[in-house]
Amino acid sequence: MRVAITARNIQLSDAMKEHVEERVGRMERLLAPPVSANVVLLVENYRQTAELTLHGNGAKFHGEDVAHDIYVAIENSVEKVRRQIEKHKDRIGSDRIRENQKQPEVATSQPEAGGEPGENAPPDEEPV
After folding, report:
1. Which of 14, 17, 51, 59 lies deepest, with the highest CB count within 10 Å?
2. What angle (nearest 5°) sits at the alpha carbon of residue 67, between those of residues 60 and 85?
3. Could you tell me which of 8, 6, 56 has the C-alpha nearest to residue 29?
């Protein structure tokens, strides 16, 4: 998984970088490769924001959280994205089940040979 981390108004420490890569790396097992993630960590006064955008399975998942602690914001945004992925997978799975249950209609009656009614009637009966 490719993880791009951007820090705004904050010094990105090695511990913070490892924490983000570990938490986001867990998302890889939920999606088929290739998976890429963009993480933006932003500090404004006392607000610490973590934004996570994940691209995988032909879909884009986005989670954002604001907290007083950057680690809490990271955890919450990862959890939001995880719920979105689970919901997406459930939706895709239920669509596939519905498609498999649809069966093409099969004609049960055979078409008649054609001609006038009674033409193919048995000889001792009169046509109606």
Report:
1. 51
2. 25
3. 56
Rounded-to-5 percentages of helix, strand, coil across the chain = 40, 25, 35
Q: Give pLDDT tens digits along the chain (128 positions).
A: 899 999 999 999 999 999 999 999 988 888 888 889 999 999 999 999 999 999 988 899 999 999 999 999 999 999 999 999 999 988 887 766 666 666 555 556 565 555 566 666 666 766 66
CATH number 3.40.50.300 is the correct assignment for the domain at 2-100: no
SS3 state of residue 67: strand
Q: What is the DSSP letter of 103?
A: -
CA distance 48 to 4: 18
Domain boundaries, the chain: 2-100
CA distance 72 to 50: 9
Alpha-carbon gap, residue 93 to 97, rounded angstroms? 6
Nearest-Å Rg of the Cα atoms of the chain is: 30
Structure-token match 């954002």, residue found: 64
